């Protein structure tokens, strides 16, 4: 009999979350109510910023952030080539041009030197992504943004709970994005938020997410074109309980990362993610290894799948995605580092309640698969 399948990710929903969502259903107020206000207040306090604006997804948050900062047609936005496509999608949504640059090989985040080389007279903004929950070099990137008078957006969708020099990730940019998809550290089902220090930015974000309405205006009065990017009361109630549990959640994920680090340490040629970095506190979103250069990733994935173990390819370089090649707008010069690292990355099963026994199964299967994958 085959052992039970091990999923790539799994949400961690307790009775407290179920009770909170059920309580909202009994109120009859399912949108733009007290749960939204409370969730936003608590997110802002957790990150040490003045405002949080909850939205329907992290991608929606990126879109609204770019609009709020005035990024538009003919502008250029610098972002990492190694990231989820949502970052580039949002830039295309505002008719700007993504400028895709190299990453730091240790952290897989933006390389500040590559950012500076990419600045042109058309550059309007930088999007710094905290990839896999590893904080980017925000001090250096922030200094570049200030020097060249560029807007700075932090994509912290994968990094809630991370910090740099004791300061929360998401508190360095003009605006920052959070994401709450079910595989994230905390979830609202679908959803996200934009963090802002400026009251004017926060007001504009709230107007745009609600069809361009001012909060005090009549429902059918619209100050400007906007979007339906609202987050429901149900989602906010779920998110509030998850946020109250965040210390427990982050500790569980760190322990799982530490177990993997020990279990995988003897696999020759396998590169494990760093458990720590000087001056930076990681928040474990996924556990992504780099396979030996001799290993065929497709073979390894197939072998693991045959043993009931799910894995993921994280990420294909944005500039090589068919959508961007077809448009011929996001193609930059050959990005050797990104293109050499990306085909070797493999996300292993990783979630709050993964057991030591499940991780042992993954490690054993990975060791055997790599041995036969050359």
Keywords:
Aspartate Aminotransferase, domain 2, seven-stranded mixed sheet, 374 residues, alpha/beta, Aspartate Aminotransferase, domain 1
Itemize the secondary structure elements and their pairings.
Layout: H1 15-27, H2 34-47, E1 51-55, H3 58-68, E2 76-80, H4 86-93, E3 97-101, H5 112-118, E4 123-129, H6 138-147, E5 151-155, E6 163-164, E7 167-168, E8 175-179, E9 192-196, H7 199-209, H8 233-244, H9 246-263, E10 280-281, E11 287-290, H10 297-306, H11 322-327, H12 336-341, E12 345-348, H13 356-371
Parallel strand pairs: 2-3, 2-4, 4-5, 5-8
Antiparallel strand pairs: 1-9, 6-7, 6-10, 8-9, 11-12
Helix pairs in contact: 1-8, 2-8, 3-4, 3-7, 9-13, 10-13
Task: Sum this structure up briefly.
The chain has 374 residues and is of the alpha/beta class. The protein is built from 13 helices and twelve strands.
């Amino acid at each position: 009999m085959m052992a039970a399948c091990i999923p790539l990710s799994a949400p961690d929903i307790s009775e407290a979350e179920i009770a909170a969502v059920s309580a909202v259903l009994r109120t009859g107020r399912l949108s733009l109510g007290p749960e939204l206000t409370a969730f936003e207040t608590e997110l802002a306090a957790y990150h040490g910023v003045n405002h949080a604006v909850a939205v329907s997804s992290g991608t929606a948050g990126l879109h609204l952030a770019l609009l709020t900062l005035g990024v538009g047609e003919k502008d250029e936005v610098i972002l990492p080539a190694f990231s989820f496509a949502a970052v580039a999608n949002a830039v295309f949504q505002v008719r700007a041009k993504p400028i895709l640059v190299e990453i730091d090989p240790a952290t897989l985040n933006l390389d500040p030197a590559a950012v500076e080389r990419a600045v042109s007279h058309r550059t309007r903004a930088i999007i710094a992504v905290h990839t896999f929950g590893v904080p980017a070099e925000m001090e250096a990137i922030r200094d570049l943004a200030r020097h060249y008078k560029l807007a700075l957006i932090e994509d912290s969708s994968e990094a809630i709970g991370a910090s740099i020099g004791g300061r929360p990730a998401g508190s360095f940019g003009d605006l920052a994005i959070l994401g709450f998809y079910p595989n994230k550290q905390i979830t609202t089902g679908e959803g996200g938020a934009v963090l802002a220090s400026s009251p004017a930015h926060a007001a504009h974000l709230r107007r745009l997410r609600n069809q361009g309405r001012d909060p005090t205006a009549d429902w059918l009065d619209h100050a400007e074109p906007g979007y339906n990017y609202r987050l429901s009361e149900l989602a906010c109630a779920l998110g509030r309980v998850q946020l109250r549990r965040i210390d427990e959640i982050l500790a569980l994920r760190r322990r799982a990362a530490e177990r993997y680090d020990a279990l995988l340490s003897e696999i020759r040629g396998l590169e494990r993610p760093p458990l720590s970095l000087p001056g930076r506190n990681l928040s474990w979103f996924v556990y992504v290894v780099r396979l030996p250069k001799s290993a065929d990733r497709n073979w390894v994935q197939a072998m693991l799948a045959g043993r009931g173990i799910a894995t993921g390819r994280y990420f294909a370089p944005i500039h090589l995605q068919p959508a961007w090649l077809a448009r011929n707008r996001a193609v930059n010069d050959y990005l050797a580092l990104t293109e050499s690292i990306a085909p070797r990355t493999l996300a292993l099963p990783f979630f709050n309640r993964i057991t030591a026994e499940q991780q042992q199964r993954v490690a054993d299967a990975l060791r055997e698969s790599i041995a036969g994958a050359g």
